[in-house]
Amino acid sequence: MSDDRLRARFDAFDADKNGKIDAAEFEKLLDKLGFGYSDKQARAAFESIDVNGSGAIDFDEFLAWWSAI
């Protein structure tokens, strides 16, 4: 998938359009993709993707994660 298409996908899940995906937006993303994670699993996944520990997933973190799944 091209970076432009990934950016569009990222932007679609960034509901508040602040350039980051927060934990609530990430949980909706997981649901939409059909992952079926528990709250604990979703939190753990979020924390592992948020490598800089900012409390949100930026596009570079999203890109790295998406490329790995």
Characterize the structure shown.
By secondary structure, this protein is mainly alpha-helical. It has a single domain, classed as EF-hand (Recoverin, domain 1, Orthogonal Bundle). It is built from four helices and no strands. The protein is globular and about 30 Å long. The chain starts with a helix and ends with a helix. The mean pLDDT is 95.
Keywords:
0% strand, mainly alpha, globular, Recoverin, domain 1, 69 residues
Low-confidence stretches: none
Radius of gyration, whole Å: 11 Å
H/E topology pattern: HHHH
Strand content: under 5%
Tell me the helix content: 55-70%
> What is the CATH level 1 assignment?
Mainly Alpha
In quaternary terms, these chains amount to: single chain
CATH superfamily: EF-hand
- Biggest beta-sheet profile: none
Compute the number of structural domains: 1
Number of strands: 0
CATH topology name, in short, is: Recoverin, domain 1
The CATH architecture comes to Orthogonal Bundle
Query: What structural class should be given to the helix and strand makeup?
Result: mainly alpha
